[in-house]
Amino acid sequence: TMLAPDTGAGADFVLGPRLRFAAGPLAEAGVQYHALTDSSDTWRTPRLQSALSFALQNRPDAEFYRRSGVAVFLTTRPLDRLLVGAEYRLDDYASLATRDGVATLPQEDEIAFRNPAIDPGRIGSLVLRAEWSSSPVASARIDNVLRHTDLPLASEPARTGRLWLRSANTLELARPGLGGEQQFSFTRLVSDNTLVGNEGPFRGLRLRLRLAADWGATPPQKQETLGGWSALRGGAFNRYRGNLSALAAAEYRYRRIAVFVDAGGVRERVGWSGVLWGVGARLY
């Protein structure tokens, strides 16, 4: 159980049986009922980082909404490095109002960051996942309990050899025939690929390629965005929004100092944004 922010929405919880299997072709299976203060920005900003960013600069780098419903899921492991899963979801989405009183360090009378409204209603969808890793995937690492569609099912292992590669791919099919309302009919595809160097001349290197697209009657909470920390650094948070996005990031870290280059683009309503760049340094 996790407590939600003070939005009047109540507590967050996930309730239901979930089994993980240490061996064999079946990796996990479960049914859950949940009520969450959720965000589609989890792939770019962990919740703790979002809270600290909000307190320090009145910019949470995440847009929140309420998601409540049920999920039934099954994940298989046909190979020791491959996860293939399916999940049925039936969720009610609702907007979250911005609090009038905020506590941020810049100044006490600063206007609060406005959390945007979403398209409310019930969405029924089928989520298909395929995730490959260059190292064997143990069931204990399948820890995406909230079933975020933008995050891999399995966490990154602590020790992965000289080079570690992962490709996490998710296809979400939302249709009225799956229990949702008539206005929610869309398809969303995300492919997030990461290469990490841990030893030798590759130590400190991290490469990422993320491709995402959606088509159909996609609500704003499911559309593609770029901009903000971990998502085209140097661009304003969610500055670019559309139905197709591409992001490439390269970072090299030496001890506590890292340099990075980000490049990406979004196909917006007015057309393609062109190639957008971000170059800088980071202190860990």
Structural class of the helix and strand makeup?
mainly beta
Mean pLDDT: 89
Strand content: over 45%
Shape: globular
Which blocks of ≥5 consecutive residues have pLDDT under 50? 1-7
Q: Mind summarizing the main beta sheet?
A: 13 strands, antiparallel
Number of strands: 15
Number of helices: 1
DSSP helix fraction: under 10%
Radius of gyration: 19 Å
Order of helices and strands: EEEHEEEEEEEEEEEE
Q: How far is it from the N-terminal to the C-terminal residue, by CA?
A: 30 Å
Write the layout of secondary structure elements.
Blueprint: E1 13-15, E2 18-20, E3 26-39, H1 47-57, E4 64-79, E5 82-95, E6 121-133, E7 163-174, E8 186-197, E9 205-216, E10 224-226, E11 240-242, E12 244-254, E13 257-268, E14 271-272, E15 276-283
Antiparallel strand pairs: 1-3, 2-3, 3-4, 4-5, 5-6, 6-7, 7-8, 8-9, 9-12, 10-11, 12-13, 13-14, 13-15
Structure in words:
It is a single chain. Strands 1, 2, 3, 4, 5, 6, 7, 8, 9, 12, 13, 14 and 15 form a 13-stranded antiparallel beta sheet that branches. The chain has a two-stranded antiparallel ribbon with strand order 10-11. It has one helix and 15 strands, in the order βββαββββββββββββ. It has 284 residues and is mainly β. The relative contact order is 0.12. The two termini are 30 Å apart. Helix content is 4%, strand content 49%.
